[in-house]
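Marked as duplicate of an earlier ticket. Keeping the data here for the record.
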Amino acid sequence: MSDDTSGASGRPWRTTAEIAEAVGVDASTITRWGREGVMPKSTIVHGGRRGRSARWPLHSVSQAAWVQSLLENGFSFEEIRSKLAAGEFKPSSDGGQKTG
């Protein structure tokens, strides 16, 4: 999983497809996780004929991997939201996850 500091093409954000590919899930899964409140807030951009798309903060890749790991270990969305509220996931300034 790549988690560089500037995203693909030097952009300061990630697309839903980029996050999904990095974590190995469908884009609809990332969207659902966002609706469930276990992903950071995305910005919706309207692209005219291209439709709309979401732009996510760089740390979204590491947060999605963290969420996926918790779900695989049997945690519910409610429990994951509680962990987020308690500060158990702390994104670093370079887009990764701080430990400790």
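See parent ticket for discussion. The chain has one domain: 12-98.
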